[in-house]
Specification:
Blueprint: H1 3-6, H2 9-17, H3 23-36, E1 40-47, E2 56-63, H4 77-80, E3 91-92, H5 93-104, H6 107-114, E4 124-125, H7 128-133, E5 137-138, H8 140-166, H9 168-178, H10 196-208, H11 223-226, H12 228-231
Helix pairs in contact: 8-9, 9-10
């Protein structure tokens, strides 16, 4: 592996699935990657509105251990900008989702942000008309990177069953290397993981200080329990807007 260790998952999606990836998917993997890298972290708070009500669990996002030393990529700013001037601020997860959608603006605008990183600048180009009306073209460097990334992902997907049979440590080692790109491997959330995915997720939790609500199942797919907001009231992919429900 080489490129999967170097690129953020949003950059990988830009190269491999630029025509089909959604704003929802791009934002979800970006936030997950920032959480995994301890740039941001979750804070679980339980409150009981009244003695008659059961306790409610709220998930907040706060600065992580490496926030102040991390050099963010252009597209990661949609999640990070609320934090720098507000030390100790806690943002409700759903509210941060809404902020990210507003900052992203649209799928096309967010993809443009992703393309502005140093590693992406040689992979995509824009004509004068594209700069005015939107769009971009993939370069020869981009096509070569696309081929290499597809090969690396295919190799990992093929190796996954045997890696799982060898034990969780080998999978965890790959996870540590490619971080959020692990979410892009086909089959990582499949039932073929058996009970091992729960162990792996708990290990990641422990390493990255990422608490889960008690209702979560403890698998890789449990991240969707955090990100219901992406899939419900904040799912306006065409314009990046909030559809107006309470989910944000």
């Amino acid at each position: 592996m080489k490129y999967l260790t170097m690129l953020s998952p949003a950059e990988t999606l830009l190269v491999l699935r630029r025509e089909t990836t959604t704003l929802n998917e791009l934002l979800k993997v970006t936030l997950w990657d920032l959480l995994y890298k301890s740039v941001l972290q979750t804070l679980q708070v339980s409150r009981q509105p009244s003695p008659q009500d059961p306790p409610c669990t709220f998930i907040y996002i706060v600065k992580g251990e490496y926030f102040d030393t991390y050099k963010p990529l252009p597209h990661e700013g949609v999640f990070l900008y609320p934090f720098p001037t507000n030390n100790g601020i806690e943002i409700l997860f759903r509210h941060l989702v809404k902020i990210a959608y507003q900052n992203a603006g649209s799928r096309q605008k967010f993809l443009h942000l992703v393309s502005q990183s140093e590693q992406m600048k040689t992979c995509f180009s824009q004509t004068k008309l594209q700069k005015i009306f939107g769009g971009y073209s993939i370069t020869a460097n981009g096509l070569a990177l696309e081929k290499d990334l597809a090969k690396e992902l295919a190799e990992l997907e093929a190796r996954l069953p045997s890696l799982l049979e060898s034990g969780k440590e080998k999978v965890l080692e790959i996870y540590r290397q490619i971080k959020g790109n692990m979410l892009l491997i086909q089959g990582i959330e499949s039932t073929s993981l058996g009970g091992l995915d729960k162990q792996l997720w708990e290990e990641v939790q422990q390493e990255q200080n990422m608490p889960l609500p008690a209702s979560c199942s403890g698998t890789f797919s449990s991240f969707d329990s955090y990100s219901e907001s992406f899939d419900s009231s904040c799912g306006g992919d065409s314009n990046g807007g909030d559809s107006g429900g309470d989910g944000c």
